[in-house]
Amino acid sequence: MKSILSIAFLLFANILFSQSFIPSIKNYSIEDYKADNQNWDIDVSNTGEVFVANNKGLLRFNGQSWELYEMPNKTILRSVFCDNDKIYTGSYEEFGFWKKNSFGKYVYTSLMNSFDSSKKVNNEQFWKILKFKDVIYFRSFARGIYTYNGKEIKYIENSQGVSNETIYENNLLLINRNQKIIKLEEGKLLSLNQNDYNLKDLEVVNLFADNNSLFYFTKKGKGYVLRNGKKTPLPKNLNLFLSKNILNKVSFYNRNKIAFGSIKKGIAIYDLLLNKTEYISKSDGLQNNTVLSFKNFLGNLWVALDNGIAQINVNTTMSFFKDNTGALGTVYDVEYFNNNYFLASNTGVYTFSKNNELTFIEGSEGQTWSLDVIEKDLIANHTNGSYIIKNNTFSQKLNDVGVFCTVNYKNIILQGTYYGVNYLKKTNGLWASKTVKNIPFLVDNIVFENEFTIWISHPHKGVYRVILNSDYSEAIKITSFGESKKLDQSKTEVFRINDEVIFSNGNKWFTFNKVKKKIEDYPNFIKGKNKNLIINKNEKWVIDREAQNSLILLNNKFEDSLQFNISSANERLVSKYEKVISKNDSIRILNLNDGFATFNIHKINFKQNNNLNPIVEKIYSPTNTFNTKNLNDLEIPYNDANFITIQTYLPFNYGANLEYILTGEINELNKVNNSKIILQNLKAGNYSLYLKTELGIDKTEKKLIDFKVLPPWYLSNFIKVLYLILLIIIVWLTYYYTNKRIKSQQLKLKKEYVKRTQERINKIEKENLKNEINSKKKELISSTASIIKRNEVILSLRNELRRLLEFSNNKIRTERLIKMSKEKIEDEKEWKVFENNFKKLHEDFFKKLIHKYPKLTTKDLKLCAYIKMGFSTKEIAPLMGITVRGVEIHRYRLRKKLNLDSNESIHNYLILFN
């Protein structure tokens, strides 16, 4: 099996890959821009915005995010042209322009209503738009050219079938249907004169001019560049490429380079000075080989493809070699040795010569971890052992165990192997290897602390400090730091920097204290996550994937001295095996998972655009959109501030990682994702928003906007005034009602006091009255009792007189005395006195009694009064001057008049009667 593989690789070694270095390519697929695959035309505005005519509409890229604007009638866009703040587009039976409104959205205005009704177009598609002398030109295939001066549309007569319009030395040149070059003057198409650039009567199929240089490609398949009256032909191989693969688009992207876009085989870039052509196709990383349009802008060649969009950084100092066959595999190390690149990969070792030929080295099949130049020999550290490479072959095998690395410290050469450490020594031109005893485990890295002390690392068990004997034959002391709490992550990397041993573990840095013999924190070194340290001889590099996809060269104070943007290579770096290799004083090499890249440390590979201010495109919430024309007094309602989106970008910085800083009532630092800053749950108050970016070594913070979040409606100034008024009203009402309540309480208390006082008075008066009544009653009873006694005496005397009347000597006198006694008893004066006193005690008694019983006589009333006073029958008889029997008869009659039953007491009835 091994012999079969050897034969296969031997055959493979004879295959030469004519792949070359290519510039950085950034592809955008339909998954990125969310539209259709075909992109017919492309242009860039003066603010760096990329506009693409896509099957689905107008695509716009601000460097951070893509946005699609569909045509009102959903037609395919065929052409696009940027003119200041207007973006002109052409489609089927339609052309017009787009312009950004005050809310950051591009709105379409059709120019079809500017047509003369007799000049309406049918079944026409507009494939090209350009501007010449303040007039916009729209060109279709069949009908020809229409012009727009800002007010009206005009048609250029006899322009049917023209193509490839271009501006050269203040002339608008075109190709007519006969493939002759013509020019447009004052609205008319004219043939060229004999003295017009010596182009008269040429048959051409493509024409393009830029920077006072004119390119034309003839019907016979030959291309020429005309500059300052001098004609320079293209080389034959390039002409053949353009003819065979159908030239479609041309662009000058600097004075001496021309880019050609083909239908079948991608792009060719021709250097006029070096007479050298570079080819970029799908095999070199382009998504598609059919170039429909491209635009050169600030060193970026924007390419509209039949499937996707590409950004080619033609001015970068970083160049890439990429093996698209997959045979090379992952490159773990690169050495530039004897004017050739040597590549160590997982499939073996390869050479890449200055003629761009990739050749496999015979016998190197399998994983090769690293390459080292030691004592003028190139050593390959292979899974089968270490080998000396000479004459592009593995000429000498140094040992039989897999080797990860070879380290040279003051001519002491050690190797980290699958089973420990080997000691290498070269004597009289011959290499010898021996195993260092007492290290029976895998070693993937070695760092010298001093001549006889080394640090070795195991990929899973941490690091060890090893003291070697004088002849490097054995380890006399091994101290494991794998159980150190500081080195708690599985993988620990060891470095030697400025005579110090440094450890990296879990994004933290440590050093070894030689006095205390312990590992300590190493502060203020490399902060942040996803930052890998790479030591290349005396250079210290940091790959920062988190912030700006940057490669940073540190000085001796561990400060940034140079910074390179490697975003185009970032995803292709070999994780955990990144290396920066020196080719010479200027050129450095990066190993990649599909090849390698080179860059010049004396040239920053992206332009400084720190003088540019970020642009706010849109500000919106789920329920509201804000005007972005005047952002000086931006006020955001409280409800909108719960979720507000600010869409922004930094002109001319494509794909740059941006961060925002929010200061104010809430302070926040976060990333800008897809050109959007999303702020949530903002409190009421004033805020400032800054855009932060890192360009080169400079770290800049640029103010984006100041804005104010209004308080909620219930805390607005108007509502606060209402609150104040309401508070005043409440205070007043509280005072009023409290005062009223106090007064009411006082009045109530006063009334209660008066009532109680009056009750007391009434009680006193009642008691006084009762006492008075009782007194008067007693007086009445007493006076009546005296009358009774007197009347009893008179009655007794009268009875005696009546009994003595028949025996009296003076009957007349006796009768007179009897009469006088009767008169005395029946004297009305005494009754009147009794009646008056009785009425004082029992007011209206007689009136009510007479009212109820009108048949009562005066005598009945007297009897009622005496009974009510409580006098007995015996006591009443003297008062009325009758006998007790007479009183009883009278009482009986009175009961009848009062309608009283025999069971009812007449005395009780009269007592209660009122």
Q: What are its keywords?
A:
single chain, 914 residues, alpha+beta, five-stranded mixed sheet, four-stranded antiparallel sheet, 12 helices, 65 strands
Notes on the protein architecture:
By secondary structure, this protein is an alpha+beta fold. It contains twelve helices and 65 strands. The strands form 16 sheets. A five-stranded mixed sheet has the order 59-65-64-61-62, with no helix packed on it. The protein has a four-stranded antiparallel sheet with strand order 1-28-27-26. Strands 2-3-4-5 form a four-stranded antiparallel sheet, with no helix packed on it. Strand 15 (171-175) and strand 16 (181-185) form a beta hairpin. Mean pLDDT is 85; it is low at 1-18 and 605-609.
> Structural class, please?
alpha+beta
Low-confidence stretches: 1-18, 605-609
The percentage helix is 10-25%
Tell me about the biggest sheet?
A: 5 strands, mixed
Tell how many strands the DSSP assignment holds: 65
Overall shape = elongated
Strand content: 35-45%
Write out the strand line-up for the largest beta sheet, numbering strands in chain order: 59-65-64-61-62
Radius of gyration: 61 Å
Number of helices: 12
Distance between the termini: 145 Å
Question: Average pLDDT across residues?
Answer: 85
What's the helix and strand layout?
Layout: H1 2-13, E1 24-28, H2 30-33, E2 39-44, E3 50-54, E4 57-61, E5 66-69, E6 77-83, E7 86-91, E8 94-100, E9 106-110, E10 126-132, E11 135-140, E12 145-148, E13 153-155, E14 163-168, E15 171-175, E16 181-185, E17 188-191, E18 204-210, E19 213-218, E20 223-227, E21 230-233, H3 236-245, E22 247-254, E23 257-262, E24 267-271, E25 276-280, E26 291-297, E27 300-305, E28 308-313, E29 319-322, E30 331-337, E31 340-345, E32 348-352, E33 358-360, E34 368-374, E35 377-382, E36 385-390, E37 393-397, E38 403-409, E39 412-417, E40 420-427, E41 430-436, E42 445-448, E43 453-458, E44 462-468, E45 475-480, E46 493-497, E47 500-505, E48 508-513, E49 518-521, E50 531-536, E51 539-544, E52 550-554, E53 560-565, H4 567-570, E54 580-582, E55 587-592, E56 595-600, E57 615-620, E58 625-626, E59 634-636, E60 643-649, E61 659-664, E62 668-671, E63 676-680, E64 685-695, E65 698-709, H5 717-804, H6 811-825, H7 828-841, H8 845-852, H9 858-868, H10 873-880, H11 884-897, H12 906-912
Parallel strand pairs: 59-65
Antiparallel strand pairs: 1-28, 2-3, 3-4, 4-5, 6-7, 7-8, 8-9, 10-11, 11-12, 12-13, 14-15, 15-16, 16-17, 18-19, 19-20, 20-21, 22-23, 23-24, 24-25, 26-27, 27-28, 29-56, 30-31, 31-32, 32-33, 34-35, 35-36, 36-37, 38-39, 39-40, 40-41, 42-43, 43-44, 44-45, 46-47, 47-48, 48-49, 50-51, 51-52, 52-53, ...
